[in-house]
Amino acid sequence: MLKLFLMIGSINMLIAVGLGAFGAHGLQGKLTERMLEIYQTGVHYHMIHAIAILIIAVVADRLGNPAMLTWAGWAMFIGIIFFSGSLYILSISGIKILGAITPIGGLFFMIGWVLLALAAFRAV
């Protein structure tokens, strides 16, 4: 699992940095302040949770790869897709119904953090 989550986390960091740069340079002046703020929120959460996936990879390697950490990593990844993905599309397209998908991603983020905490608790 170490290799897979290192790849997923690294690729997501690459994408987040690219999308952050695109937002800062390519979308400036093309989106309203509010939509640009929404876009940047997506980038911010994307980066935080890509780093979390990298941390999960390292922790899973040290703890012998418990299943709970695997689920935590997948929950973080699914959270990025739903949360940040919906904010990217919402801010660029203006389709406000996508805002209803964002909390699903947030829920996956929270599930991932709970599973990470439980895996750490069990390892102690």
UniProtKB/TrEMBL annotation:
UniProt key word Transmembrane: yes
Chief site of localization: membrane
Transmembrane segments: 42-60, 72-91, 97-121
InterPro entries linked to this entry: DUF423
Gene Ontology cellular-component terms listed: plasma membrane
Subcellular location: Membrane
Keywords: Membrane, Transmembrane, Transmembrane helix
Topology class, membrane: Multi-pass membrane protein
Similarity section: Belongs to the UPF0382 family.
This protein's name: DUF423 domain-containing protein
